[in-house]
Amino acid sequence: MNSPDRHEDMLERLSAYIDGTLSADERAAVESACAADPELRQALAALRRVDEMVQAAAGPVPELDWAEFTRTNRTKRLAVGGRAAGGRWRSLMLPLSAAAAIALAVTAGILWNAWTRTTPTSPDQASVAIVTVERTTVTADANSLASASIVRPVQGTRSDAFAGPPRARRTLIVAVAGQAPDRADGTADEEAGYF
Amino acid sequence: MSELVNAQSEADDARERSFEDARWVADARRGDQDAFDRLVDRYQRRAVAVAYRLLGNAEDARDAAQDAFLRAYQNLATLEDPRRFGGWLMRIVTNLSLNLRRSRSRSASTATDDVIAGEEELRTPSGAMLSAGAERPETAELNSAIQAAIDALPEKQRVALVLFSIEGIPQKDVAQIMNCTVELVKWNVFQARKALRRALADHLD
């Protein structure tokens, strides 16, 4: 073993030799090199000895009550919900939900457009059409949008529409009509979208 | 010749197991608890063994393995190739064990000594542990030196050594567990052996 690089390369080869990951030709080359070089033989023996020492020191893994381990795991699984996170169906649901939400938004937008052209609005109230997109379910009928089973009109100011539990933040505001206090500046239209 | 036949037979068994794993994963995703129990039965010994090698404590190893199975169950949907459940699970076990080990060494300086397995086991300052029951003093001293040398290894070298050299997990599976290439696994094992050879020079014949 001459240069440090060659030495390092040879040691790495010896390590691979111990692991049995060399080809037949490479193994033969290592064996031939070791036969000719006592220093290599010593290095190979030392690396082998290190492995043996490590394995001997590691000792056995403690034996557990494996049946009890399995039972405990089932109990833990049931405690956190019982059903594993689904596979393909679950991964398909996200894009399907997004597609459904977009379809809802487009439909509701068209309906709202028609509605605002025909429905007079009270000057002191805003009508906010809300589409619930959570889990792509539809919640209620709209009194003036009979065909839009997905729309729930909310009477009141825009602030009223935003009030309520955090769940409301998963609601899609698709349309705002009427004269809410800040309706004039156009913010109501801008806020149509996901919340 | 017989080596080739054995290798082929092992490869066939591994393939059969991986397809069986995929079936059980699919059943578990549909809510079949018995299917996931079968996965637990198949991998619990290896999961506990890997955690034990990294943590050095049977109780922590059991808890880490339980936690790993639970996380695997909760995240089955993210497993892209169900045939590779075993490697994926071992990666979870390894990561949880390393996290626990890191947090343990961070708190080691302030925590009180909580050695609870003193009858049969000897815990080193880093938290790893070796069997020390009926050992002669010189054997205990050697094991202590070996464990100290392993503890001093960089984390990736230690993990590669534990998984490959001690647990005997094939390098390609270790690569999946460590999320790296087989070449990198080989390099880490080699570096670990080299470092141990230096550290244990006085104990080598």
Description of the molecule:
- The complex is a heterodimer of chains A (195) and B (205).
- Chain A contains 7 helices and 4 strands, in the order H-H-H-H-H-E-E-H-E-H-E.
- With 195 residues, chain A is α+β, with helices and mostly antiparallel strands.
- Chain A folds into 2 domains: 4-58; 88-194, no CATH class.
- The model of chain A is unreliable at 119-195 (pLDDT under 50).
- Chain B is built from 8 helices and 2 strands.
- In chain B, helix 2 crosses helix 3 (58-74), helix 2 (33-55) packs across helix 4 and helix 3 (58-74) packs across helix 4.
Helix count of chain A equals: 7
Fraction of residues in H or I helices of chain B:
over 70%
Low-confidence stretches of chain A: 119-195
CATH class membership of the domain at 1-108 in chain B? Mainly Alpha
Q: Span between N and C termini of chain A? A: 70 Å
**Approximately how much beta-strand content do the residues of chain B carry?**
under 5%
Helical content of chain A, roughly?
40-55%
> What does the main sheet of chain A amount to?
4 strands, antiparallel
Task: Give the N-terminus to C-terminus distance of chain B in angstroms.
Answer: 35 Å
Number of strands of chain B: 2
> Which secondary-structure class do the elements of chain A indicate?
alpha+beta
Provide the succession of SSEs of chain A.
HHHHHEEHEHE
Radius of gyration of chain B: 19 Å
Count of domains of chain A: 2
CATH superfamily of the domain at 1-108 in chain B: RNA polymerase sigma factor, region 2, helix turn helix motif
Mean pLDDT across the residues of chain B is 84
SSE string of chain B, helices as H and strands as E? HHHHEEHHHH
What is the fold-level CATH name, i.e. the topology of the domain at 1-108 in chain B?
Rna Polymerase Sigma Factor, Chain: A
Structural class estimated from helices and strands of chain B:
mainly alpha
Neighbour order of strands in the largest sheet of chain A: 2-1-3-4
> What would the average pLDDT of chain A be, to the nearest integer?
64
